[in-house]
Amino acid sequence: MIITVKSNADKDQLNEFQSWLTNQDYTLHPSQGANYTLIGVIGDTSALDARLIESLEIVDKVTRIQEPFKKANRKFHPQDTIVDIGGVKIGGGHFAIMAGPCSVETPEQVIECAHAVKAAGATILRGGAFKPRTSPYSFQGMGPSGLELLEAAKKETGLPIVSEVMDPSQLQYFDNVDMLQIGARNMQNFTLLKEVGKLRKPVLLKRGLSATYEEWLMAAEYIMSEGNEQIVLCERGIRTFETKTRNTLDVTAIPMMHELSHLPIIMDPSHAAGMSRMVRPLSLASTGGGADGLMIEVHNDPAKALCDGPQALRPDQFSDLTKDIFAMREIVIKHNLNK
Known about the structure:
Low-confidence stretches: none
Order of helices and strands: EHEEHEEEEHEHEEHEHEHEHHEH
Distance between the termini: 36 Å
Helix content: 25-40%
Shape: elongated
CATH superfamily of the largest domain: Aldolase class I
Structural class: alpha/beta
């Protein structure tokens, strides 16, 4: 971090400020210029609040030369992190498809979808028991009984399960869930992030509707700061000025996250467009772009779905799509081998 001090700074205030920094075990390298004094701060400056320092009367500006996220940063962890979800690996060359209904509705629906997605090549079953909805009058999910249906599908098919948790009070019901999903609306629910960080259970962290890459990785940092490093990032589309689609899928996030972080990243084409006909091209674009996996909504009868039916694929559509996904994946693998 480089702190630019104003030329007319009070010397006593400057000395007090420098003492405050050195007392926190930072090494200072001051440099006197004609108009400004520059103070180079050496050490882990992630805990320093740049905006607070800039608010000081003697300070002109603060320049970070390192990102505030340390544990999620590839600079400090060059090797890809491989996350294990009930025996299914994601990251470091391992590719996985999570598929299933947006929300759990009936035993028959969940079991039928689970068998269908497994037969088509999915390795993780997704399903929502607790549903954050924009309208308070929309279906909010089955709650704990929905998780029980997912657990029954897991026992019958062998597929590990991922489901969304919305509040720390709900964690008591997730003992048998293999992966905890943090939804876009809760990406900055810091209390929840800390609690899941204490569980040592794999976490799927979705990007917020308007979150920057740094904000997204700082959310991951909250989880990792509590000791849980088993995190998979999930790009699910961000809100832009475009109104033709539900959200805009940021495919740029794939290479950028691979550059900035060692954490694996998967893509959610279903939530991005909000239209089932867009799922195939977005899935192939994501796979070709180097994503570590996909999360796709599949419903045995989308027209009667209680949640997000328009973006869900039928089992036969999903089966056709996975064939193309795996073909695209083979091209990506061959390209990487020939580098």
